[in-house]
Specification:
With 136 residues, this protein is an all-alpha fold. Helices cover 74% and strands 0% of the residues.
Length: 136
């Protein structure tokens, strides 16, 4: 998947989770806390990737970590989401985990500001989801 599409997919995934956040409110407190932790961990991983890439460093381990989150998606969200919602999120996350490769693919990307800004945006969305779930 082209790098810019990976970035957009991560932002899209955050938007999708925010849009279905009301579904999470009906879940038991333990499930909501688990989901909040899951989203917070994704936010932290994306934030680390953003900082490393913006400094010209490879965010070693982030692909593996994001792949782990993709594989845990059904266990974390399976009881909260419909099968269609789960499939949609899984499809996005299954290709959007390749954050370590962004530096190589975006080397010549010419755009004002950080070429990795979408990582920071996606990280913020996942942090917002975690906070929203915990606040209820």
């Amino acid at each position: 998947m082209p790098a810019y599409n990976i970035l957009k997919s991560l932002v899209s995934l955050g938007d999708k989770l925010l849009s279905i956040a009301p579904n999470f409110l009906a879940a038991k407190r333990q499930q909501r806390d688990r989901l909040a932790d899951y989203c917070e961990n994704i936010a932290k991983c994306l934030s680390r990737a953003y900082v490393d890439l913006d400094r010209g460093q490879i965010p070693h381990g982030c692909c593996s970590e994001m792949d782990h989150y993709m594989r845990d998606l059904r266990d974390v969200l399976g009881k909260i989401l419909s099968p269609e919602e789960y499939d949609e999120l899984h499809n996005v996350l299954s290709v959007a985990y390749q954050v370590e490769h962004l530096d190589r693919e975006l080397k010549d990307f010419d755009r004002p500001g950080s070429k990795y800004a979408e990582l920071a945006i996606a990280s913020g969305k996942f942090a917002a989801i975690a906070n929203k779930i915990r606040a209820t």
